[in-house]
Every structure is written in structure tokens, then in C-alpha cells.
Write a structure and sequence with these properties.
- The chain is an all-alpha fold.
- The protein has one domain (5-103): lambda repressor-like DNA-binding domains (434 Repressor (Amino-terminal Domain), Orthogonal Bundle).
- The chain has helices spanning 5-18, 22-29, 33-41, 49-59, 63-68, 82-99, 105-139.
- Helix 4 packs antiparallel against helix 6 (82-99) and helix 6 runs antiparallel to helix 7.
- The chain is elongated.
- The termini are far apart.
């Protein structure tokens, strides 16, 4: 699906709302700044869906909203936590790198190491919280 004027405007709006520059987005997602600029200017006839999804994830928008301007209605109890959102964004960035022709394996390795450490720290914090809860119950 080509990027219509409306899609370009919504993408630009989301970038402004997030307060990011095109350069920062391109650098974060490890895509060409020219590619992002071409998306915003409508110079792309058939956008790479993987890149577009990664851009949407970074901006905190859905591709559905980008294409239609409509939000999907969802139960607030099913909204992802900021923690799960951060993990999902990082995994999407890694997926984009894997599907890219110019993979940056060193950066990919660093990202995977970051995720591993993040999950280990989360596990340690969970164990610590369980111990604190157990102590509080014993004190009653």
C-alpha cells in the first residue's frame, strides 16, 4: 500500500508528538535517514512493512492508526505495561536488524546481551519481592 498524504501526515504528527527527530529515529532503528525522509515525503511506492512496523512501535502507534487514523478499541486491562512495551520495542528492533540486508551483527549481539541482562535483573527483583512479601506475611 503506498503512503498516502494522510498517512504521511499521521506519521509526521506521531514523530512530533514523540518529540524525536528523523535522525534519532533512523539511528535508533538502524535504518537510513533518507528512507525515513522518503516515507514522510511520499517518495516510497511500496514501503517495507517491517521497517514501517518498527517505526510505529518506536513512536507508540499502531499501523492500523497510521493507515486509517482510527484507534483500535481495547480493554484497558489488556494494555501492555511499560516494561513489556520496552521489551517488545527492543525485540522489534532486533527483528528489523535480522531482516535487513546490512545487518549490524555487533549491535545485534549488544542488543541481545542487553535483553539477557534486563531479564536476569527482572528475575532477581521478582525473587527479592517474593522474599519481602514472605517476611511481611510472617510478621503478621
Amino acid at each position: 500500500m503506498p503512503l498516502s498524504k494522510e498517512i504521511q501526515e499521521r506519521l509526521a504528527q506521531a514523530i512530533r508528538k514523540k518529540g524525536l527527530t528523523n535522525y534519532k529515529i533512523a539511528k535508533e532503528l538502524k535504518i537510513s535517514a533518507t528512507t525515513l525522509s522518503n516515507y514522510l515525503k511520499g517518495k516510497v511506492k511500496k514501503p517495507d512493512n517491517t521497517k514501517l512496523e518498527a517505526i510505529c512501535n518506536l513512536l507508540g502507534i499502531s499501523t492500523h492508526w497510521l493507515y486509517t487514523g482510527q484507534d483500535l478499541v481495547c480493554d484497558s486491562s489488556h494494555k501492555p505495561s511499560s516494561l513489556s512495551t520496552a521489551i517488545e520495542e527492543k525485540l522489534n528492533q532486533i527483528a528489523l536488524q535480522l531482516q535487513s540486508k546490512d545487518d549490524q551483527y555487533l549491535n545485534l549481539h549488544k542488543d541481545l546481551e542487553y535483553i539477557r541482562k534486563f531479564i536476569l535483573n527482572l528475575y532477581k527483583e521478582t525473587i527479592s519481592l517474593k522474599e519481602e512479601v514472605k517476611k511481611l506475611r510472617e510478621d503478621k
